[in-house]
Write the structure tokens for this entry.
Amino acid sequence: MAERHYPELGAVLREEAERHVPDRAAMLTRIAHRRSRRAFAALRPVAAAASVVATVVAGFAGIRLTGDRSGGAEPPAAASMAPTTEALSPAPTVAPSSTPDDVTAPTRPNRTTSTTTTPPIRWQPVSGFLRSAAVLDSHSNDTWAQGNLTLTTAETITTLDLVISVARTAGVRDTGKWTSVPTEMITMTVAEEKGALIYRYTLNEGRTLAPGEYVFAAQYQHAAGKRDPGGDTYGAIARAGEKRAEVIGVFQG
């Protein structure tokens, strides 16, 4: 039997194909949205690794502050709780995958699952006019310790916000804090977090620190035995006029 031809069928198919041209703008919008969500998810562990300096500028919202209990009246809440508005250096940008999930190929190849590795924290003990060093005090013993953070500035500091974070290992409990800066010039507080004790030192408004060396100490009790301070960190943001410096580091035993 002779094959029958339908010339009008080709014309109809072409017409339908032209009517259903993909909306390129809508496709690109969906792809960009998916990529941004993927990049944001990848950045979350990196942002968490910013640790202590991020805590300085967060304002300690929602954290119970125990205040300065080392003699004298407790400083006004406005003086101790005023959050810093300085912005941190952004976390490194994670490049999104070049293959969007919204586009489906006719034949889907097998893909090897990849795991994103969080980059290590980059400690920065020196920044501009500011230097820092953090060690355990020589008087620390098997049940009690004092972490000393020494800041050395080559410029007159006009604002300073500093944090020492003591990891809450077995038996860790706050027992005090002090600084070589005169007490009337600085506000000291302790915040209790689930995973750490946060000691904060803020230079009072209108006060300055001349070039030189200053010590900030966090004191705490811990379970009997040698305690590794490797989980204790610190961060500080300082200004000297228009100059800005920020340091971040870890305590040495």
Remarks:
- Confidence is low (pLDDT under 50) at residues 39-51, 59-106.
- The domain at 126-250 is CATH 2.60.40.1170 (Immunoglobulin-like).
- The two ends are 95 Å apart (CA to CA).
